[in-house]
Amino acid sequence: MTQRVAVVTGGIGGLGSEICKKLADQGLKVVAADLSAREERLAEFKLDTAEFNGQIVFKAINVADANDCERFFKEIESEFGRVDVLVNAAGITRDTTLRKMDVKQWTDVIDVNLNGLFNMCRPAVEGMMARGFGRIINISSINGQMGQFGQTNYSAAKAGMHGFTMALARETAKKGVTVNSVSPGYCDTPMVRAIPEALRNQIIESIPVGRIGQPTDIARTVAFLAAEDAGFITGANIPVNGGLFMH
């Protein structure tokens, strides 16, 4: 069998970069797909992944732009032949209470976090079904399940992501394509480090395992769902949150 090809959106972000490295460790060719404007972070990412000797490559994409996603998939299929694994990890926040939220803060989050899912899955799924193999893993959030103060936009998008996951799983199940979501709790990423320290400490105290998650905790779960022999798991949501639901 030729080498499997994976695409990870948000691929140079806190979670995305660890997912890229874990999939590469599993022997996949990995395309880290992200905004090209993040030049400083991209330089760090290339340095961080240099040890993989070209097994992880970067490609620019704007997941909120449907035409750009179509272009991206044509480019990837031309260069690598196909996409076997798609991890939708691109996400942004624009936090504020609904009373203060403007239309742009709502639409920006929905465009990236939810519309981006449609924009990526639609061009990917046809080839996966035709070949009889595919793994789609959508990175949701604990806040899509619990809700969060100041995150009506983000929580709505992440909850919608799992509804999308279950529906697409039904459409592709007989064709060898699985579709699952992973809902991280609070992880050590720039997004969580931006939370004020006092509030962050309160969050950590409420997590039964006594710590926030590491990106590797999420990457390990993604790799499990992406595996060749994970074909009997589809339409599932896997919470990875240190037992926070038990609090």
Molecular structure report:
- The structure is a single chain.
- The protein is an alpha/beta fold and 247 residues long.
- It has a single domain (5-233), classed as 3-Layer(aba) Sandwich (Rossmann fold), CATH 3.40.50.720.
- The chain has nine helices and seven strands.
- The protein has helices at 14-25, 39-48, 66-80, 103-131, 143-146, 152-172, 190-193, 197-206, 215-226; strands spanning 5-9, 29-34, 56-60, 85-88, 134-139, 177-184, 237-240.
- A seven-stranded parallel β-sheet has the order 3-2-1-4-5-6-7, sandwiched between helices.
- Helix 2 links the parallel strand 2 (29-34) and strand 3 (56-60).
- The protein is globular, with a radius of gyration of 17 Å.
- The model has no long low-confidence stretch (mean pLDDT 94).
Index terms:
247 residues; alpha/beta; Rossmann fold; 7-stranded parallel sheet
CATH superfamily: NAD(P)-binding Rossmann-like Domain
Q: With helices defined by DSSP (H or I, 4 residues minimum), what is the helix count?
A: 9
| Distance between the first and last residues' Cα | 46 Å
Q: In the CATH hierarchy, what is the architecture at level 2?
A: 3-Layer(aba) Sandwich
| Rg (CA only) | 17 Å
Strand order of the largest sheet: 3-2-1-4-5-6-7
In quaternary terms, these chains amount to: single chain
Concise description?
The chain has helices at residues 14-25, 39-48, 66-80, 103-131, 143-146, 152-172, 190-193, 197-206, 215-226, and strands spanning 5-9, 29-34, 56-60, 85-88, 134-139, 177-184, 237-240. With 247 residues, it is of the alpha/beta class.
